[in-house]
Amino acid sequence: MIETMKLELTKEWDKTFPKSDKVNHRKVTFPNRYGITLAADLYEPKGVEGKLAAIAVCGPFGAVKEQASGLYAQTMAERGFLTIAFDPSFTGESGGTPRYMASPDINTEDFQAAVDFLSVQDNVNPEKIGIIGICGWGGMALNVAALDTRVKATAAMTMYDMTRVNAKGYFDSEDSEEARYQKKVAMCAQRLTDLKVGEYALAGGVVDPLPEDAPFFVKDYYDYYKTDRGYHARSLNSNGGWNIIGCESFINQPILKYSKEIRSAVLLVHGEKAHSCYFSKDAYEEMTKDSKYTANKELMIIPAAVHTDLYDGGGKDMIPFDKLQGFFEEYLK
Questions:
Q1: Which of 101, 124, 149, 305 has its CA 20 to 30 A from that of 217?
Q2: What is the DSSP secondary structure assignment for residue 125, as one 8-state letter?
Q3: Edge-to-edge strand ranges of the sheet holding 82-86
Q4: Roughly how many angstroms between the first and final C-alpha of the chain, as a whole number?
């Protein structure tokens, strides 16, 4: 029998967005195949009967379900879907030790475990399950779409390919064998330092205080994670960040290798002015180039939007929820 570890979950509403009176909300837990128990918020539209289409949501990378993913989940529930927003392994209210580690494999599995959970709910149609990944979890969502045939539709919002950015740096500025070698040297040295000290050193979250000469994308992250707009006490990006060695394996484990074999529907959404827009453009090109499965693939660019505008709308309603609703209604028929 698959066991679920008992987690201590927050009872009060501690989200970065207001609670909707159009949905029912409750906390749930479920295990992944590594025995790690994940915590999630379940949102269910009020007054709707029968078996519903369902969506699992996660991201951004280093965020928690009380931030952007919860906003997406609650809003999509208002539009008729049963949804969950979950914390990945080793973060937030989910289990897993040591804390603040990441893994392309385990984090892909986290999404699949969410699909497992949704598939066995009495009020969910297991043939109508989709996923939404935000930022670094957009890349994970595409990896899941290439692996899990139960997923009928995937939306990747303001996507990051975390394996690419770890291996090649921002804007591919460190894409050389020597640069990767030096990263590996530093990681291996840090492993021994951590072992001798007896704890894992944190890399630090979004820089604070913000330097005057910080690049725009750093200012963009600061504006979300370090202000009342998006700060959360459990968010890694708002606080101490991942362990320094937390993302070590991302350097040589590309996650989008088989994206052109995705048969189910995929929608990539990115801001025109986002520093990260190249991730979605390149992923879409790779997914559709020499592929037999292009008819249900789409890249949507939001005019004037920056990266974090697709976290919470940026105060300008930048998230195309009407588009998301139509996309999932079409492909989760």
A1: 101
A2: E
A3: 23-31, 37-45, 82-86, 52-58, 124-134, 151-157, 265-271, 297-302
A4: 33
Distance separating alpha carbons of residues 290 and 246, to the nearest angstrom: 35
Q: Angle at Cα 62 formed by Cα 296 and Cα 297, nearest 5°?
A: 5
Is residue 278 within 8 A of residue 171, CB to CB? The reply is yes
| Cis-peptide into 126, omega within 30 deg | no
105's enclosing H/E stretch is helix 104-119
| Max Cα distance, the chain (Å) | 59
DSSP SS3 for 177: helix
Q: Can you say how many angstroms the Cα of residue 33 is from the centroid of all Cα atoms in its chain? A: 19
CA atoms of 175 and 257, how far apart (whole Å): 18
- 187, two tokens: 């990681």
Return the H-helix or E-strand segment holding 331: helix 321-331
In the block, residue with structure tokens 């080793």: 90
Length reported for the chain: 333
